[in-house]
Fold this protein.
Amino acid sequence: MPRYLILRLDGPMQAWGTHTFEDFRPSNFYPTRSGLLGLLAACLGIERSDHNGQVALAASVEFSVRVDTTVERLDRKQLVKKSGVKLPDFHTVMDARKVDGKANKFPVVSRREYLYDATFTVAVGAKPDAPLALDTIAEALRRPLYTPTLGRRACPPTRPVFDGEAEAANGVEALRDASGSGALIYSESLESCQPLRLRDVPLHGNKRQFGTRLVYLHKETPCL
């Protein structure tokens, strides 16, 4: 039976970036593939400039993400109800870059979205012929070389992100067996009748560019 690494992404603030409009930096409602790869890369010590290492990591893992509505706290032996809220934060930026590349002589107000009090559980599975073994990734999660963050550097986790391992038929079943609960699971490996197309696949090169992928939505009550 396939093996999965279980991650618990819990923090007062998270930000999983989606398409950016210079002075507006929105957050997705759940972790993106690029953000999750960045978290694993930090634990493994893969530099952003190491394109071969980034490509090898991307070719090794697949993700399923559960949006948690209850979570087990480390300091309590009980489940706690939680619901994340998305709110904007405002920054005043001096010398902001204009379209022509020159600095703007006027201050610019930059809006950045964050998820507050959100919690996600992630099942990390291995792709066929993965260049990096799950054992290597699990060891890096236990002893990360760089501090993992929840989408942005200003968003540290409140607990260790590694929450153990599981064996299941697929990532969705692994999440349904994990502690806590959630009504929605987004899986890039197990198909459903509700596919979503996301543009969050990093294209490794000198510029930050992204490709698209299909993610399949799974609910507690299956669609007809």
Observations:
- DSSP finds four helices and eleven strands in the chain.
- The mean pLDDT is 89.
- The helical segments are 33-44, 51-58, 134-142, 171-177.
